Amino acid sequence: MSDVRPLIGLTAYRTHAAWGVWHTPAALLPHAYADHVTAAGGVPVLLPIGADDAAQAVISRLDGLILSGGPDIEPVRYGAAPDPFAERSQADRDTWETALLMAALQADLPVLGICRGMQLINVCLGGTLHQHLPDLAGGERHRPAPGVYGTVRIRLDTDALPGSLLGEGVDVPCHHHQAIDRLGNGMVASAWAQDGTIEAAWVPHRRFLVGVQWHPEVRDDPALFTALVKATG
Q1: What are residue 153's DSSP bridge partners?
Q2: Which of 24, 105, 121, 202 could be bridged to 210 by S-S, CB 3.0 to 4.6 A?
Q3: Catalytic residue among 36, 97, 115, 175
Q4: Catalytic residue among 142, 175, 177, 215
């Protein structure tokens, strides 16, 4: 067995942050993402927003990619006008992560999309999004309050990812007000909330291309991170 641990890229927020005596723009990500990658046998590599023409070079040095949570994706990217309840997007983050994903797809690199990350995969593959779940029945339970995760019971297809890892039913922590509407090319829904919201989707013919609408990094179940790292081998 090789002693070389796979490098897993983690996309990052760009926001103001405070530590010590400093309050300044920063590239950051909750450390739980990195902890799960490390526990799964990978080496986490933070990917701040960069120039899109550098994405190919970045991906060539990685063994896997995690598209993390974050702000709304620009509606123009899936041909929609902004909903009145749409929240601030970051065009440069959308552009950067789109370039990373397309390079990863070209290389058939294992990719896990988490929350916004699943939405980005769907949009990049030609799909669309519901821009505000509270407009739909039951949408409030997916994001009950600022800084609070909702607990959502989901049903999974156990013949697909991630259901083959997690089983047919599980409670998951969610914090999102958008979700997949029309699936992108090749995307297959594989988990659903009780209100019908798509909570996971995958592309079966890929080595590992899986998106989940919830936040597995805030729970102790390492299955998705372990599967991603295993897929790099």
Answers
A1: 171
A2: 202
A3: 115
A4: 215
Q: What dihedral do alpha carbons 57, 32, 40, 211 form, nearest 10°?
A: -70
The residue annotated as part of the active site, out of 97, 174, 175, 217, is 217
Active site residue 217: yes
Residue 146: how many CB atoms within 10 A of its CB? Answer: 6
Cα 63 to its chain centre, rounded Å, is 17
Task: Check: CB of residue 214 under 8 Å from CB of residue 174.
Answer: yes
Kindly list the strands in the beta sheet with 111-114, ordered across the sheet, starting from the edge strand earlier in the chain: 43-47, 7-11, 64-67, 111-114, 209-212, 198-202, 188-193, 150-156, 169-174
The yes-or-no answer on residue 97 being catalytic is no
- Please state, in angstroms and rounded to a whole number, the distance separating the CA atoms of residues 172 and 193: 10
Q: CA 174 to CA 96: how far, in whole Å?
A: 25
96-117 pLDDT per residue, tens:
999 999 999 999 999 999 999 9
Residue 192 phi, psi (nearest 5): -140, 140
Assigned token pair, 45: 């590599």
Q: How confident is the model at residue 74 (pLDDT cuts 50, 70, 90)?
A: very high
pTM: 0.95
Q: Is 87 a catalytic residue?
A: no
Residue 1 has pLDDT above 50, yes or no: no
